[in-house]
Structure formats: C-alpha cells, structure tokens
C-alpha cells in the first residue's frame, strides 16, 4: 500500500498486536496517550487513518476525536473509534463527534481488515473528488476570468427547445457581443454575425461538424443590439464531451476592433501617401549616404522627372542618381549634405540635373537623415521637385527687374546695386563713370513721332555696346541716358 499509514492511539498491547498482524500491508504507528498522538499527527503528514480507543487510560479519547474532526488540515483523515460491545452510548457519542466508523472490541481480524480496506478506498475516492472539485473550480475561474470571449456549443441557429445543457458563455463574450446568455441561445451565432461574414463562417462551421477540417480561424464581425459591429479574431475547434452528444465545439474570440481601426487608418494613410506621391511634380526617395546616392526606394514620379524608370535607379541598376546631377553641383551637394547631417538639420538645395534626353532641369531637393539608435546614419529620405518652370519665371522676372526692355541693357537699379557692391569689394584702384545724354533726341518726337525717336535711341545703344569690354559695361539709366562704367 506504499505510504498508507495508520495511527493507533491508546490501545492495549494485545489489541495493538492483533491490529499490526491483521494490517501487515500497512504502515502502523502507535501512540500511548493524547499528548504523544498530537505530536505524531503534527509530524507525520502521511497518516490517513486514525484508530482511537475510547477506553484509553487518560480518558481523553473523545477530546482527541473532537480535535481531529474540527481542524481543516485533518479533513481528509478518517477516524475509527474502538468501543466496548456493551456500551452503545459510547458509539453514538463518538459518531456524533464526527467519527467515520466504529469497531467493537474484541477486535475481529477479518472485520478490521475489511473496514480498513474500505476506508482506504473511500479516502482515495475522496482525494479524487477533491481533485475534481479543484479542477472544476480552476476551470470555472479560468472560464469566468479569461481575457478572451469563450462559448461552448453555441449553435448557429436559434434554440428554443430549452436544450442548453451543453451551452455556456463567459462574461467577456457577453460584453464583446453586448448580449446575455439567454439572448445568445435564442438568436444563435449566425443571426448576430455580420452579413458579409456569414457565408464563409457557416461554410467552415459545416466542414468542422462533418469532420472535414480539424478547426478553423477567421476574422469576423458580430452585430451588437445597437446596430454597431465589433471585429473579433475567432478560433473554433471540436470539443469531445460525454453523454448523448459526442461532438460539439468551443469558440474563442478576441476583440480586435482597435487593431482593425489602426489597420484602416494605416491603409488610408498609405492610400493618401500613394496618391500624393503619384501627383508630385517630382519623386520621393530613400537612398544610402554614399557618393552615388544609391537608391533604396524611388517613387513613380522618377520617370517624368528624369526620363528613367524608377527600377533603373534602384541600387544603381542602370544609372546612379549622382550621374544625373549636373557635374558642377556634385561636390557642392556632397559638402552641403555633410554640413546638414552634422547639425541634424533639414536639407534644402536647388541644383540642376541632366535627364535621359540630355535636357537640363532645375530641381529642389528637400530631405533629412535617418539615424539609428547609435546615432549612425541609416539612410537619407526626401523629395526632389521639378522647379524648372519656377526658375524660368524667376529668371524672367529678374531680367525685367534688372534690364531696360527697349535696349536690352542693364538699368539704373542694377547699376546702383553694382556700385554699392563694388564700393565694398574694390576699395583700391580706379573706377570711372561716363554719362551719355541723348535727351535732345526727344525733340524729334514732335516732328517724327515717338516711335522714330525711340528707334534712334535703340540704334545708339547698339552702337555704344560696341565700345564695351570685359572691364567696361554700358547701362541705360533713363529713357535717353546711358552710362559707361
């Protein structure tokens, strides 16, 4: 019987001998009095049966019985009392105090052995019952407190026959769906599933019932009473149970509405970004920080900007971006990026590129460095915009601001700014200004018209231009006045 132990308390030597002989298969411990019995019960954790002789010398057998049966730690210990055959009141008192059984003296070996074997079987059964109870309590705690919704044997169709013996639902599932257990039974899961998800869910469910698939998993929506829907990640698996219904299922659901909302937001963001990149008058990029500006990503606008397809620039497959930059800007751009990155600032620069057709285009590059946790540069990201038209307009505006339209010469505004500049830069050496006044030509306008005099002014300007050199410039400072500088 292994560690099966019996404690015998207060019996005579002859009775102890008879007990030991009858129960040789068990481990027998003996205590002479109550004090010794207390100590042995404290120290010996394997005692399963206690035999107390109520006629023990110190007459404290009843007290010991009451103590053992009153303490929770001895709840699984069986107590058998030994009584006199001529004293039924002793038996009744002992049973009322909680004794599990009694034996009358003199002890009969066969009766003793049968009773002890029975009590050990009862003890085993009691242990198993306690284990089942503990497991049931554990399952119930998990079921009720699980951080996921759980249903057991939830039918697809409404159930009105009251046969809900196998159906169960935990509180979180009720909160997720917004429905009570009774509502879930009366509606069935198909009627609270979003119409767009019903066909696929029902198809899987039928395959599961027919044993065609071991389980299934899907994302679906439940309809709440207020008309709103909740996204869940659902796993359905077979559940074998005893009884007439040998096959059923368990359903586990997790609320993923927030995740779905984030996914939708990200998808919308990606869509908006895609639309934005598609309509950029240029291209977005991600590249290595190297002298080739090796491209990791290039948007579709690359072709319209450069004449090359985006995949031709990726990893320098056909051409590197550095080869597209007009040669006079290559060193300048590298130095400017170095300075920008050292200060971790935003990069901004205008320069020219040469397209696949050999056409020069002005571009504006806006970018920044991407740094890792160690402060090292992982990549550069930014956009490159075509500003050729903007540059053309700026150049045209600048030209009209600085030139006299009729003669094509620099005007007075430009002449004055040049004088102020040279006064600062050239503080040594000689400079000269010679003014030519042709205002008398305006008299001809009275006789021959304005156009005639203006034509003379233009022809005079062309003649005066012939006198210009690298060190001599001509300016048209007023309608009919010229200045050599």
The best one-word shape is rod-shaped
Strand content: 15-25%
Numbering strands along the chain, what is their spatial order in the largest sheet?
2-1-3-4-5
Tell me the number of helical segments per DSSP (H or I, 4 or more residues long).
16
Mean pLDDT: 88
Number of β-strand runs: 19
**Helix/strand class:** alpha/beta
Main beta-sheet strand count, sense and barrel state: 5 strands, parallel
In short:
The chain has 485 residues and is of the alpha/beta class.
Overview of this structure, please?
- The protein is of the alpha/beta class and 485 residues long.
- It is built from 16 helices and 19 strands.
- The protein has helices at 13-22, 34-43, 61-70, 88-96, 109-145, 171-177, 181-187, 195-209, 257-278, 302-306, 310-313, 327-342, 388-402, 412-425, 444-448, 450-465; strands at 5-9, 27-31, 47-53, 78-84, 101-105, 149-152, 168-169, 216-223, 229-240, 247-255, 282-287, 295-298, 347-354, 360-371, 377-386, 410-411, 434-437, 474-478, 481-484.
- The chain has a 5-stranded parallel beta sheet, sandwiched between helices.
- The longest helix is centred in the N-terminal third of the chain and has 37 residues, at 109-145.
Layout of strands and helices, then pairs:
Elements: E1 5-9, H1 13-22, E2 27-31, H2 34-43, E3 47-53, H3 61-70, E4 78-84, H4 88-96, E5 101-105, H5 109-145, E6 149-152, E7 168-169, H6 171-177, H7 181-187, H8 195-209, E8 216-223, E9 229-240, E10 247-255, H9 257-278, E11 282-287, E12 295-298, H10 302-306, H11 310-313, H12 327-342, E13 347-354, E14 360-371, E15 377-386, H13 388-402, E16 410-411, H14 412-425, E17 434-437, H15 444-448, H16 450-465, E18 474-478, E19 481-484
Parallel strand pairs: 1-2, 1-3, 3-4, 4-5, 16-18
Antiparallel strand pairs: 6-7, 6-10, 8-9, 9-10, 11-12, 11-15, 13-14, 14-15, 17-19, 18-19
Helix pairs in contact: 1-5
């Amino acid at each position: 019987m292994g560690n099966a132990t019996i404690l015998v308390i207060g019996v005579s030597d002859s009775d102890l001998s008879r007990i030991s002989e009858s129960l040789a298969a068990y481990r027998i411990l003996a205590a002479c009095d109550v004090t010794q019995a207390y100590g042995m019960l404290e120290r010996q954790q394997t005692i399963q049966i206690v035999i107390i002789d109520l006629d023990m010398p110190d007459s404290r057998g009843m007290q010991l019985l009451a103590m053992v049966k009153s303490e929770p730690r001895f709840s699984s210990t069986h107590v058998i009392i030994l009584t006199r055959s001529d004293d039924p009141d002793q038996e009744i008192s002992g049973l009322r105090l909680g004794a599990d059984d009694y034996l009358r003296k003199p002890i009969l070996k066969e009766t003793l052995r049968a009773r002890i074997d029975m009590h050990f079987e009862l003890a085993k059964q009691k242990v198993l019952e306690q284990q089942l109870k503990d497991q049931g309590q554990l399952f119930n705690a998990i079921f009720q407190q699980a951080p996921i919704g759980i249903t057991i044997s939830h039918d697809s169709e409404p159930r009105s026959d009251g046969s809900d013996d196998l159906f169960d639902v935990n509180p979180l599932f009720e909160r997720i769906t917004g429905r009570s257990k009774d509502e879930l039974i009366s509606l069935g899961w198909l009627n609270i599933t979003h119409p767009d998800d019903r066909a696929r869910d029902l198809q899987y469910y039928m395959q599961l019932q027919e044993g065609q698939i071991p389980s299934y998993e899907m994302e679906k929506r439940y309809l709440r009473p207020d008309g709103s829907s909740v996204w869940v990640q659902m796993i359905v698996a077979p559940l074998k149970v005893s009884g007439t219904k040998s096959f059923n299922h368990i359903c586990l659901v997790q609320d993923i509405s927030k995740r779905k909302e984030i996914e939708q937001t990200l998808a919308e963001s990606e869509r908006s970004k895609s639309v934005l990149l598609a309509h950029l008058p240029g291209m977005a990029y991600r590249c290595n920080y190297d002298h080739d500006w090796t491209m990791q990503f290039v948007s579709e606008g690359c072709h319209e900007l450069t004449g090359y397809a985006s995949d031709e620039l990726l990893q320098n497959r056909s051409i590197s971006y550095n080869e597209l930059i007009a040669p006079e800007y290559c060193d300048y751009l590298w130095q400017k990026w170095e300075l920008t990155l050292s200060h971790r600032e935003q990069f901004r620069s205008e320069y020219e590129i040469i397209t696949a057709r050999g056409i020069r285009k002005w571009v504006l590059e806006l970018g920044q460095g991407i740094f890792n946790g160690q402060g090292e540069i992982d990549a550069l990201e930014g956009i490159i915009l075509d500003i050729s038209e903007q540059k053309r307009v700026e150049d045209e505006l600048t030209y009209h601001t600085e030139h006299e339209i009729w003669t094509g010469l620099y005007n007075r505004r430009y002449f004055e700014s040049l004088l102020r500049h040279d006064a600062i830069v050239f503080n040594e050496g000689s400079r000269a200004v010679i003014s030519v006044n042709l205002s008398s030509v305006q008299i001809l306008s009275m006789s021959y018209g304005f156009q005639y005099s203006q034509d003379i002014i233009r022809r005079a300007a062309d003649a005066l231009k012939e006198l210009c050199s690298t060190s001599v410039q001509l300016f048209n400072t007023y309608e009919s006045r010229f200045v050599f500088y």
